[in-house]
Amino acid sequence: MKTIKRYVRLYKVFIAQFFKSLVQSKADFLIGLCGFFFTQITGIAFLYLVFEQIPVLEDWSLDQLIFIYGFAQIPRGIDHLLTDNIWMVAWWYVVNGKFDRYMLRPMNLFLQVIFEKLQPDALGELLVGIILIVISLTKGIVIVDALHILCFVISMIAGAVIYTAVKLLFASFAFWMKVSGPVLYTAYQMADFAKYPTEIYAKGVRFVITWIIPFAFVAYLPASCFLKPDVSPVPVIGIECLIAVVLFSIAYMVFTLGTRAYESAGN
């Protein structure tokens, strides 16, 4: 309990310092927020363009796909907001030796990385996701009861953990590769495939995004359970939680091994 209280107190200190730096560049914050918001809007516009040519996609309507799209944005936005600094490990901190400062502090290394920064740009993703979910609710296409609400909350948390785990796993390769940003970017971008029904993809792609880099369990698979009255969300959400725990455990283990192999930048 003392350890938890200590880290909560340290998190407040880190975030207070981050916000002090943030207010020095308010224009950057607003531009970044608007940029992410409009990026998400273009994704929705793409859906409308597709459905102008194809009224039904593998038995899924436009309204249903909009819900799946919104469902996918919320856990991604949570991950983006809280753990975006992991990208810096992949791109800069290892190759430039800036990871040294984490090694010198008497504090958990992973928590130091994620405590150091919030990413306000993620509010654009969260806002779009929430708006799309609300629109879907008003159209009556989503099942709403106590069980589904509970499963929704659990799925958002588990989904965010999966996003973070994927990011941490591939970022940790930088301890051996020095720069793992391109690998991480490629893996992370596969999340876009999960915003659409997996049935439209070839078997190989479906297998990768379901069981190798399991973004399908963040978006399409759990989201579809909220659109089908004859399907219980419990089994899928249960598997999603299991995947989140296992994948994060693997990612954290690789991260820990990587920190032991870390050699700084040298001269």
Short structural description:
By secondary structure, the protein is mainly α.
Description:
- This protein has 13 helices and no strands.
- The chain has 267 residues and is an all-alpha fold.
- The model has no long low-confidence stretch (mean pLDDT 84).
- Helices cover 72% and strands 0% of the residues.
Annotation keywords:
267 residues, globular
- Round the Cα radius of gyration to an integer and report it: 20 Å
The count of β-strands is 0
The low-confidence parts are: none
What fraction, in percent, of the residue positions are helical? Answer: over 70%
Shape: globular
The helix tally amounts to: 13
| pLDDT averaged residue by residue | 84
Secondary-structure element series? HHHHHHHHHHHHH
Distance between the termini: 42 Å
DSSP strand content: under 5%
Write the layout of secondary structure elements.
Elements lengths: L1 H21 L3 H28 L8 H22 L2 H8 L6 H4 L5 H7 L6 H17 L7 H27 L1 H4 L3 H9 L13 H10 L7 H6 L8 H28 L6
